[in-house]
Design brief:
mainly alpha, two-stranded antiparallel sheet, 13 helices, 6 strands
């Protein structure tokens, strides 16, 4: 957190992120860079780096709140690269240069990689400029919209757009639809009292946890149903957190059945068939699964996906 704040301060002053990281590694911050002599800087930086530092520090820094907004809305990424997974140095670029009256207003600033920053500052007198200010500004707006939708889980990450057939190109909603379809089966939510084979049931619970953790959809019969984006990669933080709770509840459910077997509440024969010694166990397991369904349905409702139904409450007598 502290290093992130230091990098933001140096970005605000006009340094690129790579040079900012190097300065931090050398135990410099904005204040010590301002007070450092050229001789002391030469002990740590190349001449061209020193020149870049000195040029940047002559400017008025971009306000902290604007830097924070730029980074939040662009996710530390260049809008012209259009790929939030591409880890390259970035810099705050002024659409209208300081020397030409440009300000530190948000609308005049954009995050660019060093290549596109150099391209934006290049002179094209004969042919049309490949990255004019108006184009960069338009691209920034489109990129911010894409990032916002990605963080809501309703679109793929910029740079990973595709046909949703692979986890890499899936949105959170794409993955949730597949999860809902995978879970909405009798093999997962039939009443516990009429489960056909307890060994298969435990295998199914393990497969559910595998699906949520690793994105592999596999049935108790061994059929492979494809891959989805694991919940750990969900871009909507609220959905990710709630789905992690759903996964934890499935893990607790599986552990409860295993405890019941060890403690003799449930007797399982070698062929997987069983006998309940604890007559309250089926109701307990079904109640746990209804809780899981309720938690899952909150996310499905928010995502606009039809809710699923858990095991009905059985009114049977022993």
């Amino acid at each position: 957190m502290k290093q992130s704040l230091l990098i933001k301060n140096l970005l605000a002053a006009g340094l690129d992120s790579s040079l900012a990281e190097k300065a931090i590694e050398k135990d410099f911050n904005l204040s010590t860079l301002r007070n450092a002599t050229k001789k002391s800087l030469k002990q740590h930086f190349e001449d061209w780096e020193i020149q870049r530092i000195q040029d940047a520090l002559q400017r008025k820094p971009v306000p902290d709140d604007i830097v924070e907004k730029l980074i939040e809305c662009c996710d530390w990424s260049c809008c012209l690269c259009w790929d939030i997974n591409r880890q390259v140095p970035i810099i705050i670029h002024h659409l209208v240069e300081h020397a030409k009256g440009g300000t530190n207003a948000y609308d005049n600033l954009v995050i660019l990689c060093l290549n596109h920053h150099g391209l934006a500052h290049s002179k094209w007198e004969i042919s049309r400029h490949p990255a004019p200010a108006d184009y960069i500004k338009k691209r920034k707006s489109e990129f911010e919209k894409a990032i916002a939708e990605f963080k809501l889980g309703i679109r793929a990450a910029p740079g990973r757009e595709g046909d949703t057939s692979t986890p890499r190109t899936q949105t959170d909603i794409d993955a949730l639809k597949r999860i809902a379809g995978f879970l909405n089966r009798p093999a997962v939510f039939r009443p516990f009292s009429i489960e056909g084979n307890m060994s298969d049931f435990l295998a199914e619970m393990s497969n559910v946890i595998l699906a949520l953790n690793a994105g592999r959809l596999k049935t108790r019969e061994g059929d492979e149903l494809g891959d989805i984006k694991p919940i750990s990669e969900f871009s909507n933080p609220q959905w990710r957190e709630r789905m992690e709770l759903v996964r934890d509840q499935f893990d607790t459910l599986r552990a409860r059945v295993e405890v019941a077997i060890r403690q003799g509440e449930l007797t399982i024969h070698n062929d997987g068939f069983y006998f309940f010694e604890n007559r309250e166990l089926p109701d307990e397991i079904d109640a746990m699964r209804r809780t899981i369904v309720s938690m899952l349905n909150v996310v499905l409702y928010q995502a606009g996906i039809p809710e699923i139904r858990g095991p009905k409450k059985e009114n049977y007598r022993w």
